[in-house]
Design goal:
Elements lengths: L1 H17 L3 H12 L18 H5 L9 H11 L12 E3 L8 E3 L17 H9 L3 H12 L4 H7 L9 H31 L4 H9 L3 H8 L10 H7 L3 H9 L20 H17 L2 H12 L4 E6 L3 H4 L2 H6 L5 E5 L5 H12 L3 E6 L2 H15 L8 H51 L9 E5 L6 E6 L5 E7 L6 H14 L4 E5 L4 H13 L9 E5 L4 H5 L2 H6 L5 H14 L1 H5 L18 H19 L1 E2 L5 H4 L7 H14 L16 H7 L3 E2 L2 H23 L22 H12 L4 H6 L1 H14 L1
Parallel strand pairs: 6-9, 9-10, 11-12
Antiparallel strand pairs: 1-2, 3-4, 3-5, 6-7, 7-8
Amino acid sequence: MCGLFKAKQYLNNKVQLQKPKEENVGSKLNTLKQMPVLPKKPEVCPFQGVNVKNLESDEKPSTSAPVVENQVKHEKSEEDFAFDEPPLKKMKSATSPEGKPVKSLGGNKVKEEFEMNWDIVQVLSDRTNVEPWVCANLIRLFKEENTIPFIVRYRKELINNLEADALREVQQTLEELRTVAKKTHTMIQKLKKEGKLSGCLFTSLLNCRTLEELDHVTTPYKMGSKGTKAQRAKQLGLEPAALSLLQSPMALNLFSYIRPNTKGLANIQEVEAGVQHILADIFAKDKDTLDFIRRLCQQRYICIQSALAKVSSKNSNEKDIDKFQIYHEFSCNIKNIQHHQILAINRGENLKILTVKVNIPDGVKNEFCWWCVNERWRPKQFLKPELMRILRNSVEDAYKRLIYPLLCREFRSKLTSDAEKESVMMFGRNLRQLLLTSPVRGRTLMGVDPGYKHGCKLAIISPTSQILHTDIVYLHSGQGFREAEKIKRLLLQFSCSTVVIGNGTACRETEAYFADLIMKKYFAPLDVVYCIVSEAGASIYSVSPEASKEMPDLDPNLRSAVSIARRVQDPLAELVKIEPKHIGVGMYQHDVSQTLLKATLDSVVEECVSFVGVDINICSEILLRHIAGLNATRARNIIEWREKNGPFINREQLKEVKGLGPKTFQQCAGFIRFNQDYIKTFCRTKKGQSTQLTSEKQGKKKSKPTPSASYQPNPLDQTSVEKFLNYCKKVKKKCNYFFIFSDNNLFSLLRQEYLSFR
């Protein structure tokens, strides 16, 4: 620890010595602005004092300006450890291996496959409350197929030290925005092919930010639709009259549009109704109008109400109705309602037990109508009383028939979406806590799967998770005393002093049985203790293909007892074998999006496994496939390579595995561990075999064999700063810090590990 403290102290001193003074940077910027020979004033980054264009490209800095060149050389000569906010990082690239300091990977402008009228970075920042430059960096990192564990550990400076949960939220929101953009452009191509795309409709589509807005705009143009009232009025030729009412009402004569033999134009009332429908459609699709009503709703009391459905008592079960008793007459502000209440209301509505509606006060409607008539859609000329009446009726019709239903759908959709996300996030947090439970190492355990009729299944496993014995005892059928002798004999035979009981059927009776025997010191001289563990998912796992492959000769009922014991010995290694949603630590998991739930839970498992790390030479294929960057195929290839060539000696050998390219190696290498004691023993064995073969070939001539590079272990594969310093002590007889920092490769590795563990 003394060596670690000195290394950290040296790093901090190095930072203080190399941090440039702000005054010098400012003077250089002023000198740069006063250069008369430059044809164009370059854009200067205030963080490092270098040209932004040079940062945005992988090319070397331009030498056209002498001052900039000197300045860049001064920056390149520094070993930049920036702990300021926002932190900077030296990113390596193929053309610039020395790295370049960046705050944002190319600015906040991100080019997407489908362009919209809104900036995806800004919208993503607004929805997730994350800084725009962080969102821009995350978009690029996700586009480069970087995993969340890799980004959290090795790209902290680019994401402003965000946690994995925040990254998952940004990733999900980004996928939602891309889905909206993709569907929008698909609809544009479809409408263009059908000849229905106009300039106004094209702009309205590109302004859509949610699927609800897109559905609101495109519903009238879907196949099989008879058309809206506004479309039918336009087909009758009333659109010029509606536009004239807003632009030049003095020249408008509605009587000229009357056609006695045409339905919809037979009299003045039908003509006015057609104009009214066209105006209402224009108002309801106007972006400024919708933005105003949304801002107005944010300032008012909007509540969601639920009541007992009238037909629920006839078609539903009384028990189901009683479950939703508190929601029979329920009302709450949409800003204060809890997520679990939204999910409960939605479930009751799906079961046709509850009716739900969003209540918007009349004051919102009155203020909205006044604003539309007097400000937003105020005619450019004087309006006759009969035309003013049409305008007012159009605004009220737009609100009642088009805008109010849209707002209700938006509120319900946002509340449901937020509730589902919170439910999934809670599931993820509970799952992470369960997976990262402290293991019980070095003990022989007896797993007990309790039961009544079919007995209690027993399984004794060794400290290395090997199955020593399995049996069935009937503790709750009048044979408890006789079975106690069998249990005592097994505990003494295998020196087992820890009993693990599943929390399923007959759990409390089994617990009382063992507690009574322990209190009577029945298992003396063993000091036996017991614990209760969740057995959720054990039955499903016992009949899964993975369990059949791992324990082919064991009865499925006994496999569950083995799983229960291993959950205490190594929770992470055992629980990853079970599909996360079967563990049962979530809320309303069957009501949320199953795609979102699976993606989030798989990401949490990957995060936990990567956080702990795995010993690549002893871990199972199921555990290995959850490492960041790996999948089932790559994990299987690693296991096959290990079985064919023996254990891995260092990380470089991973590149020899089929399917592990440079990108995959970058993502997974930092989360793989190597047991150095085991590797040293293996290397000594290989070295002895190599020496024996060499001596047989050369006869009496003896020469010192040179081990192959593939059989040389790397002490840094332990990823521990203390062990690295101990290695330096062995090499140099004492910890020579100047030796460490004089070697750029060793220094960069130490810095990376220091930033990971600090």
